[in-house]
Amino acid sequence: MTGNADHDALYIGGAYVAPRGKGWLEVVSPATEQVIGRAPAASVEDVDAAVAAARAAFDDGPWPRMPVAERAEVMLRVAQGIGKRREAIAQLITAEMGAPIAFSRVAQVSTALLEQYAAMADGLFAPEQRRQGAFGGLVVRREPVGVAGLIIPWNAPLGLLLGKLAPALLVGCTTVVKAAPQTPLDSYFLAEACDEAGLPPGVVNIVAADREVSERVVTHPGVDKISFTGSTAAGRRIMSLCGDQVKRVTLELGGKSANIICEDADLAAAIPLSLQGGMLNNGEACIALTRVLAPRSRYDEVVEALAAGAAMLPVGDPFDESTVIGPLVTEVARARVEGYIAAGRAAGARVVSGGGRPAALPTGWYVEPTVLADVDNSMTVAREEIFGPVLCVIPYDGVAEAVAIANDSPYGLCGAVWTSDVEKGVDIARSVRTGTFNVNGFSYDTTAPFGGFKQSGIGREWGAEGLDAYTESKTIMLPRPPVGEQGK
């Protein structure tokens, strides 16, 4: 990406409006450490204006009252608008947060969720007439929850947003999108696509803000539901704030997922995908398989294979097509990851690959792909989400112990197992308390529900289940027929 992406307005009520506040968000490239653009930092007054626009669009506008099929058609036009900007968006997200461009093109810019939810329009929300009850008949219908506040992280700013926005739009909600301060620029492409698609004013409003102002989205009485993706620490705070108002909330939080390599595993297949699953998006992914559980009988073999594979991963300019590991999003993020590596060493873990900064890359917030061996599951590096390219290899004796170690975590978001016996792999998958689990692979599918157990979150996104977070069920009780009319 070249040039400077500056914006001086916020997208509120279907228009680009001057911010009420005076603050700015400067976006610094994690690869060059140079400013690449800026956008207004929303003030509390800006958030209030965005909520007011969304509230008016829900209470009095056409969107919730429009036939579902018509909303689906608009969503498909939004998808087309994003699609024709695909390369520009991929380039910009890579510039904002450092994801390798090859990854950005595939994973950061996808319209699949808009298309998948639009395809669910047929028959959605048809009232269900239930049989005559003791007190008369009844109708059960589903209605949109109202104004949804969508709080988006920086590591996949568009992809994770669409996982929230698509179901919200389909059911008739209006939205306030709160972009991350590290990645506010790509959201302007979404605003353009919404304008082109003819989305009614106020259905999508976009602001970017720091944490203090962002809390106004959560606490605003005009917001009916919050959907948040981010750290577990921030999720606890949001849940607390929502609790004060008994506000609906969906949380997709952190992970420390276990990757179980069985004694009968084919390492030639397991190791490359274990590295991919542990270090995708520079390791800045909640679903990353960062705890590798290796049988003690093959422990050294697994460690050596992971170390050799990690050492071969290309690290460098995220715009280079061959790069697999780019820079971390900020200097603070790099310092945090380096702190975890140091803590692992101090606790007795052994660095078998990486562990430092690439000598050939003095500029940019890079960390070498790192493999820590001799890790015990009680160590901090095995308990907490590092959010960088760091794998912890933990030994185990027997499948039962592997499952116990996998479950001995405050998190439960993802996981994987490698074995030549698929039936055994499925049994292990059933035993690990996590929202998504892979047998002999690493992938995710947006047509399936996604979310976590334990401190990895509350609720599910994607798939048909993702609609539930944006709807309320209403029961309409009908009068009993007059005496003499019953049974006719």
Automatic annotation (TrEMBL):
SUPFAM superfamilies found in the cross-reference section: ALDH-like
User: Do the record's keywords include Protease?
Assistant: no
| One protein family per Pfam | Aldedh
Q: Where is the signal peptide?
A: none
Enzyme Commission number: 1.2.1.86
* Similarity field: Belongs to the aldehyde dehydrogenase family.
Protein name as catalogued: Geranial dehydrogenase
The organism encoding this protein is: Frankia canadensis
- Please name the taxonomic classification of the source: Bacteria, Bacillati, Actinomycetota, Actinomycetes, Frankiales
